[in-house]
Amino acid sequence: MKTILITGASAGIGRATAEHFLAKGWCVGLLARNIAPLEEIAAGQAGAVVLPCDVTDAGAVEAAFKEFMGKAGRLDVLFNNAGSFGTAAPIDELPLEAWHAAVDVNLNGMFYAARAAFAEMRAQSPQGGRIINNGSVSAHAPRENAVSYTVTKHAITGLTKALSLDGRSLDIACGQIDIGNARTALLEELAAKTPDNPPPMMDVRHVAEAVYSMATLPLEANVQFMTLMATKMPYIGRG
Question: Which residues on neighbouring strands pair with residue 50, listed in sequence order?
Fold first, then answer.
């Protein structure tokens, strides 16, 4: 049985992706802070491993990965997904605690998860695996009043490139999916604030299918960067 660990698995993109992989017969590590939705996803699923964990706690992340390895035996894929949009504000109005909170989740948390996955993939036999980082269209171009989210998602592109390079000799592939406007509860909530001009959205299942297509490639092939966005969103060229 193939295995994947998904951070931020309790809701939105993470939950949709977890449910898709479970339906495909994978062993799925469900990692998020809140245990109740993880247990809901795992109900009746023999391949689900519930891993309550705060990704901003490096020690807890390492322990969660060790627990998953003890139950699953190996780690084929990490979907490094946990993230937070943070506080919307111009930079001079953004509280420093809000900046640090965004960095803790979107950068430090993704670094901790990637670090733990890389270590397990390097040590397991046969060696290797795949890390898929969840970036954002904000890794291409900023959204207004979203400096903390934009900066941290640009940083994830650097993490992806570094891991892709450092993992080559170890059969550890690393790619990134940059997503724009998947229909989740969070985006629906934002859309409700502008009912006369809702943002273009796509079904979140398309994201889950895209992650699955990346995850099921042989390790000799890698999607380095994929951009998946609602068709009617404005064009965003990579600078």
Answer: 30
Q: Which two tokens stand for residue 12?
A: 């939105």
Single-letter amino acid code for the residue at 134:
N
Structure pTM? 0.94
Q: Long-range CB contacts (< 8 A, 24+ apart) of 233-236?
A: 233/137, 233/180, 233/181, 233/199, 233/200, 236/137, 236/140, 236/141, 236/180
Candidates 119, 19, 24, 130; CA nearest to 79 is 130
β strands within the chain, DSSP E: 3-7, 27-32, 48-52, 77-80, 129-134, 172-180, 182-183, 202-203, 225-229
Strands 3-7 and 77-80: parallel
Query: From CA 209, how far away is CA 58, in angstroms rounded?
Result: 30
Tokens of 159: 């993490």
Report whether the peptide linkage leading into residue 126 is cis, meaning its omega lies within 30 degrees of zero: yes
Catalytic residues: 149
pLDDT, tens only, 13-71: 999 999 999 999 999 999 999 999 999 999 999 999 999 999 999 999 999 999 999 99
C-alpha closest to that of 118 among 60, 166, 68, 56? 166
**Alpha carbon distance 221, 239 (integer Å):** 25
